[in-house]
Amino acid sequence: MVRYKIDSAQSELSAEARSNIHPIHARTSQVTGWVEAVVVDGAVDTTQPASARIEVSTDSLSADNALVGREIKKRLDARRYPTVVAEISKVAGPTGGKYEVNGELSLRQATQPITGRAELVAGTDSTLEITGELTIDVRDFQLDPPKMLGLKVYPEVAVTVRLVATIDK
What we know:
By secondary structure, the chain is mainly beta. The chain has a single domain, classed as Lipocalin. The strands form 2 sheets. An 8-stranded antiparallel beta barrel has the order 1-4-7-9-10-11-12-14. A hairpin with a 2-residue loop joins strand 9 and strand 10. It is elongated. The chain starts with a strand and ends with a strand.
């Protein structure tokens, strides 16, 4: 088992929600954490345990629109809950080049199971590049989708992460 440390300078999380008017985009590069896996010939050995912890600073999220960005931070209660945490506990596959990842997402005061898909590219310089995606329903985390000034945001949010991790020495 090898532990890789997520490099914030090269990693990013983006989220997209839909509304009755236009898509809403948010992003941050304040992504930290680690990945533990056995990588053989550029692929995760899924016969061995694999796990990850991914942390995102809620205050660092920025949106295309400043008003929307403030509303996101307000709804996430960024001061009281400064971090969103994903704990990945199982990796299966790959199927079609993508792994299925399972774990839990802690957002505000709620923790819910999650399932997503991820692709992994192992570099020759002891790095991993992981691109993952999942969709969450904010209502599962006791959050109501915003409605303001005629804008209605739908509860499903598509989340994409691009992680670059290097062996933790």
